[in-house]
Design goal:
Layout lengths: L20 H28 L2 H19 L1 H20 L6 H30 L10 H33 L2 H14 L13
The structure holds fe (ii) ion (2 copies).
One fe (ii) ion (FE2) binds next to helix 1 and helix 3.
């Protein structure tokens, strides 16, 4: 049985770097949640906003799309290619709870990819106009709600269950190896530690 503990928190108020990959993954979640919040505000602006708010909504939509297509994809790879395999390797997991959790998280990643594809399709169909005058706002609102409904419990499960378990069972040298792989995934030199872009 897995422990449900406090969310994994990086020490202090600093932005974690690649020497603290679990803290960095939590920091990535903060950024994802900020984009979800911005998309929800954008939905309201698209329905009721004036010209200025429509422009702000368009910028928020473009920014979120860019984040989920770039840093968001790398974040998923950090988990699926670097973290989850080590969790499975070092887990004693006699009741299979960690494997079940990882299986569920993997499936949610695939579902999120499908919803992002729908999100992109809707935005592309709206055309290049900043105000997204051609956007199907009702469909867009449903898609944003679907993304938020997927990500928020997913992030909670990772922050409160999976990452704390990883911190307990994965040896320190393997934790550092996760950070090194995350650096390499972003095209960074493995020597030294620099503030991350994602
Ligand atoms: Fe995830
Ligand atoms: Fe995550």
């Amino acid at each position: 049985m897995l422990n449900i503990g406090q969310p994994f928190q990086p020490l202090g108020a600093h932005v974690p770097d690649f020497s603290d990959p679990l803290g960095l993954l939590v920091h990535c979640h903060v950024r994802i949640e900020a984009h979800l919040d911005a998309l929800e505000r954008a939905v309201v602006q698209l329905v009721t906003g004036d010209e200025h708010e429509l422009a702000a909504a368009s910028l928020a939509i473009a920014s979120a799309r860019s984040h989920f297509a770039g840093p968001g994809v790398k974040h998923t790879a950090d988990e699926e290619e670097s973290l989850f395999p080590r969790l499975k390797r070092f887990s004693t997991d006699s009741d299979g709870a960690i494997r079940s959790a990882i299986q569920e998280l993997d499936a949610q990643h695939r579902t999120a990819e499908a919803v992002h594809a729908e999100f992109d399709r809707l935005v592309d169909a709206a055309g290049p106009a900043l105000a997204h005058a051609g956007l199907d706002v009702a469909e867009f609102e449903l898609t944003v709600a679907e993304l938020a409904g997927l990500y928020r419990p997913h992030i909670r499960m990772e922050n409160e269950i999976v990452f704390p378990e990883a911190g307990r069972i994965i040896p320190p040298d393997e934790i550092l190896a996760i950070g090194s792989e995350m650096r390499a995934r972003r095209g960074m030199n493995p020597v030294g530690i620099v503030p991350p872009k994602a």
